[in-house]
Amino acid sequence: MKEFFEGLIPKIQEAVTKDFQDIQKQVGGEKIYAAVLATDSDCITLGLWVNTIERMEKKDIEYSYNDFDAYLKSLEQYNLSTKIIEEIKNAPPPTTKWMPDEWAYESNKAGGTVDISKLLFDKSQALYDEANGSVLDKVYDEFYRLFIEAVTTAFRNLIQATSIARNTENRCLCLSSSRQYSNPL
After folding, report:
1. DSSP-derived 3-state class of residue 28
2. Which residues on neighbouring strands pair with residue 175, listed in sequence order?
3. Residues 24, 25, 27, CA angle at the centre, nearest 5°?
């Protein structure tokens, strides 16, 4: 399994580079503030999400003024004090800045991270089949560890060597996994 993930590192780099170039064409002159590689809880998908300041501001306006009065009215059922209601009214507006599922740009074309997801799914399925249908926690823990290691290595290499870092100066680049992992890596 280790060889699979070591061989996956350059493929991830190539896929993310392709996806990022495709996304840059869509972004145009907008200012990118964040790019995230995200996976699911089983680590069998990998996608690149990117957002821009302009798209975040537009989405935040939608959230901020999307029937705020109705939201306040819905709070009446909780018998909140006037002080708390005033705090809610005066709170800063919600932001989608760090919510990748609300971001404007994502990879979804063949040849990029979509293909990496297929490789990950196939490897995971092969491990499952080798276990004769039973899930072996130890094997999947190792799959997860090697996956995170491969993706972070690939992303680190990309940040150091490619246009991803140059086009996101003073921006956030990260990896997100939704897995609830019981044992720290």
Report:
1. coil
2. 37
3. 60
